[in-house]
Amino acid sequence: MTNPYIAEFIGTAILLLLGMGVVANVNLKKTIGSGQTPWVLITSAWGFAVFVAVFITGQFSGAHLNPAVTLGLAVAGKFAWNMALGYILAQVFGAMVGSWLAYVLYIDHYRATEDVDAVRSTFCTGPAVRNYKNNLFSEALGTFMLVFGVLFIAAPGITIEGTTVTNFGIGSLDALPVGILVWVIGMGLGGTTGYAINPARDFGPRLVYHLIPMRQKNADWPYAWIPVFGPFIGGAVAGFTYLLIM
Fold first, then answer.
1. How far apart are CA 20 and CA 103, in angstroms?
2. What are the backbone dihedrals phi and psi of residue 158, each rounded to the nearest 5 degrees, phi first?
3. 3-state secondary structure 108-145
4. Domain locations in the chain?
5. What is the pLDDT of residues 36-68, one digit of tens each?
6. CATH code at 4-245
7. How many helices (H) and strands (E) does the chain have?
8. CA-to-CA distance for 2 and 33, rounded, in angstroms?
9. Phi-psi bin for 30: left (phi > 0), alpha (psi -120 to 50), beta?
10. Angle at 199 between CA 135 and CA 20, to 5 degrees
């Protein structure tokens, strides 16, 4: 865990295991949670999942757990560019492992669910109304609010490799406000696209969904660029905005 890349991998895996797990619990057939109030339950659980993942890994890596957060912090001059690619790769692979674990946990319920859209929704996001321009704006704006908020919540002070303080991220004490931030973004801004606001959170599980054996599936790759590029745009703009006003 003292290696920041391993911490990012583990933290993102935890995030996806818990976050994807709640969507599976709500949307799949024959689960204990099926029939619950979906949006309140889902947005609350994703916020709590962020809190848990950040609390566990924040002291080791700053707990970005999101390529858009890593990019936004780097643009704002609060994170070392030479570490960004390693963080992003760790986050994507962590998201893949976390989503695969959630799939294995609910595998009997996946087998019992014939609704292809319901199954896909447990892995990745999709638009309520398919309008690529507006969907891109929605993901960019939601991620802007996330990264802009993180820039004011987080503080420097994570030591990497024992000597040089190069990181700027979310320490364990900041886990709760970041979880609340994700929660309110989901409640207020998530109704259009399901608020991926995290390229790793969407692309990694979508790829896992594409690869696992299922009778019927549709990964909706024509839409898949939206929850990747939208968050990257929003994160970068948040970083630039922070530079302008601070």
1. 8
2. -85, 125
3. HHHHHCCCHHHHHHHHCCCCCCCCHHHHHHHHHHHHHH
4. 4-245
5. 668 888 999 999 999 999 999 988 888 999 999
6. 1.20.1080.10
7. 10, 2
8. 36
9. left
10. 95
